[in-house]
Amino acid sequence: MIIRKNEVEQFDFDGLIIADYTAKLDENSSFAVISVLPEISHKLSWSKKSNKYYYVLAG
After folding, report:
1. pTM above 0.85, yes or no
2. Which residues of 9-26 are buried (b: 16+ CB within 10 A; e: fewer)?
């Protein structure tokens, strides 16, 4: 499966910029890139749609 960056819509979640590469797929896990600026925080959230795995690049 190949999902190109220009095919993915980004959205803002309380200051987090999220690009969910698997949003249109019916899978039990997801892959998203979440960009977080310094000092940003967000409300508590929970998803039962899929498993979440995190790989932190910096910070």
Report:
1. no
2. eeeeeeebebebbebeee
